[in-house]
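Let us practice reading a record.
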Amino acid sequence: MKRENITAGILAGGKSSRMGQNKAYLKLQDKSFLEIMLEATRGFASQIVSVDDAGKYRGNLPEHVVLAEDEQQGIGPVEGIFQILSRMTTKAALITATDMPLVTAELFEKMAEQYSGEGCLVLTCEGRPQPLCAIYSKSCLPVLEQFRVEGIRKPRLVFEEIPSEYLAIEQIGYDGCAVCNVNTPGEYYALREKTESGNE
């Protein structure tokens, strides 16, 4: 499927409790994590950013970017994915998160090319599904709605309810570093030092 027919959904909400500050605005080589993700998803049909509080972001994003604010608190990315899928005008959305600043537009394009247009396409790394680097069809909405009702927080459980295909990151020429999450100050400073020294 062409990426021009898929929405890009970026999860920027969350408490960032381990980091101690909003990860979306952490800088890497003079660009915020959120700016990096917006650039990496630029070729998609539209860009929706899921946030816990729109007031933190309004006025700091390009005009074409749609903000999807959480309606239900306490269920993490399940709520964000639900809000993105509810607002998209395409049949599917690539879901990713701001705390994976090493992903690339090429990786997302390869995922789109592999997507059949039905159910979910889930990237795996060393055999582990990456629910925050996956393509979800609109058919996931009833499942996500039920998760919201029941307070289920794990989006990977969607793949047990919806027909899903798995794509190994190694199969398309990348290693696990491409989808590494940055969760703590130590991880952030190590990544910044590595990239700024030209050794990424």
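A brief commentary: Residues 78 and 154 are 7 Å apart (CA to CA).
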